[in-house]
Hints:
It is built from three helices and 15 strands. The strands form two sheets. Strands 2, 3, 4, 5, 6, 7, 9, 10, 11, 12, 13, 14 and 15 form a 13-stranded mixed sheet that branches. The chain has helices spanning 130-133, 157-160, 219-225, and strands spanning 31-32, 38-39, 46-49, 55-60, 65-69, 77-80, 87-96, 107-108, 115-122, 140-149, 172-174, 190-195, 206-211, 215-217, 257-258. Strand 6 (77-80) and strand 7 form a beta hairpin. It is mainly beta. It binds the ligand CCN[C@H]1CN(CCOC)S(=O)(=O)c2sc(S(N)(=O)=O)cc21 and zinc ion (ZN). The site of zinc ion has 4 residues, from strand 7.
Amino acid sequence: GHHWGYGKEDGPSSWYKNYPVAEGNRQSPIDIVPNEASHDRDLGPIMTNYDHCTSINISNNGHSVVVEFNDSDDRSVIKGGPLDNPYRLKQFHFHWGGKGHEGSEHTVSGEGFASELHLVHWNAVKYKTYGEASTAPDGLAVLGIFLETGDDHRWLHMITDVLYMVKYKGSITDFKGFNPKCLLPSSLHYWTYLGSLTTPPLHESVIWIILKEPIEVSEKQLGMFRMLLFTEEDDDQKMRMENNFRPPQPIKGRRVRSSN
Ligand SMILES: CCN[C@H]1CN(CCOC)S(=O)(=O)c2sc(S(N)(=O)=O)cc21
Ligand SMILES: [Zn+2]
């Protein structure tokens, strides 16, 4: 595919050249304005059952750090809320900023957070493969969780402690038995809207579910993400992986609904 990144030349403002859908009608992320969100009484709670989830590995794909799951059956799904079917957990990854400034993709009333966790799920009821789902209008459901700096997150250590193993683009290591339930905040109240992938290929295939309550992580833990590199081991340029976030995109008349 085409090379893209988060730099001056290859960053979000240039993605439209190779991915014209970047200027589409349901692009993500967006700025969420809570008092403009419509409260939908028939929008039920979301349910996640990650108990039998099976993480497989953790890797650096040159854009983020990704934990992949075995999605060969319905052992780890998200359902309810705006979803007509259960959606299978495929991977989760993060977006974050540079030292001391914002790094989330979605913003709330113009405010960003230090980081944003994306748990990516796909509609295996309607679509045979992940690839097929990733291009369908109701193919993916991404659960977004804001990370704000504060106390140490006791479970995020399981991830930050192994990041040194995936410092370089293209590195991958075993990462079994991690249950992402430990990364969820106490409240599952959410906003939801129809959007897209926030990276190329920017497919308009995502039902976004953004939790209102952030989780707290320490500055030290966030700093561990920033020791990752965008570049490969044999690359003499050591480009620190940070600010790997797309800024908010035009809402284009879309409705954001609120659980309550
Ligand atoms: C670096 C590439 N990122 C993407 C890779 N995939 C798309 C292609 O797959 C067939 S994906 O579906 O895993 C997702 S979800 C996602 S976000 N930030 O919107 O949650 C980005 C991507
Ligand atoms: Zn993401």
